[in-house]
Fold this sequence. Notes:
The protein is an alpha/beta fold and 461 residues long. The protein has helices at residues 11-25, 73-84, 86-92, 115-131, 157-170, 188-197, 232-235, 243-250, 275-283, 308-312, 340-350, 368-377, 379-390, 396-400, 448-456; strands at 34-36, 99-103, 134-139, 179-184, 205-209, 289-293, 323-327, 333-334, 337-338, 405-413, 418-428, 434-444. Helix 5 packs parallel to helix 6. The relative contact order is 0.08.
Amino acid sequence: MPAAFENSTDVQSQHMWTNTFVQLFSLRFPHLRAFQFRNAVVAETRLPQGLYLLDRTHVRFHDLRPSQDCDDSALRNEQNAQVDTICLNFMEAHPKLQCLAWPMDCFFSENPLTPDIARRVETVINNLGRTLVDLRVDALYRGNTDSQTESSNSPNPDGRTRRRKFIEKFASKMTNVESIKVEGGVPRDERRETIRALHSCPLKRIILIGIACPIGNTWGAEGCDLAQPLSHDEVEDLEGEDKDAVWQYGDTKPEPPESEFKFEASWGWPASPPMAHTLASFHADTVTELKFCGYRGSADLLSPTPITTPMLAPLKHFHKLQSLIMSMWLSTSYEGSPQDAEIISYWLNARSPSSTALVLVSDDDPEGWEKELRTKYASDAIAWRITNFIGPFLSEQAKSREGGVHIRASFCIGDWGGIFDTDLTIGKGVLGSDVCLDFSGPREELEHERRKTKLESRRWF
């Protein structure tokens, strides 16, 4: 890919990169139902500065190509006029979209819509409000963690304004969205307000992905509550929760919004219910899948901090839940040193194609590091711990349903931040206790069967 438009010193690359989007938005697809551009990770593929999906395009045509391609000023002006609303023209020409993925800060510019296109934009948004069922937005990851809110004194206040305009002017107009995904460097209050803005939608899937746990930090400010010390990079800028508020609201029953509820954005993160409580208040009646990815501040599987309980307690109100995917922190320390490489090697060497039963290791097994591996990190031991940790937070109704609730615990370990997942199903035993019905893993992201399943289950494409 060419370098990012605003960072490139190669003028020709700038022209080529920007012209790619001009050519894309000049195309027409009569039966188009999914349009996705996702860019949370790589800055080098960032959208050209000034390109907005539902606003005027502030990229001029003479910026797009070398001057010799456009010597005639009248022709250039005509081409500039065409580019000016090229994205809006594209959206108007594709009224059947059901899936849309686009950077959160590139729907609108930070300036008010001009009167000559405001009505056109409103018509497109109202149409998407009826047709859109899958909405995915992102922002580039930044720093070591995700903030609870972003100050007006931030390095990019215009970006904050544009993200918030998306929430207030676009998300709040949707009525049929069933799946929402918010990924990347989006402050937690903006994630929360996105969910609140979608109050009229029958959400089935809520996917929140960041650097830090998107539903709250269980480690305390800069990791002060975690049992084992972490490196400075792992806890830097990690904001603490208002513990009194989390304990006060975490175990209370979420109340749904009133029938006449009208969304009004509320920014900041004051003393308030935990994130999962807000999700349950607005969408517990319809949600079947929850996905919370972000390792910093995530629940510690081996030694959860006290605040973990009220933070996850609202999950028990999702009675239709079929799948819960969430990051968990897995301590690899033994006798004061991390043992990531040894644990990964143990998982790879002991991998079995399928596992259907849990077997606990007794106290009579080998001592020392070998016992540590088998009692804490063996696949069956991990599945047993996940069952006992997550099971009490799940709805009894959901667990009692035939097939139980699918759980994926995602661990980030190793020098390169490798992701290993354990999949299991939690149901109810004959005596009413939580049981693990089956499990597999831990498996890395590129493990053949896991990757094959992921590719086969992709939506839209």
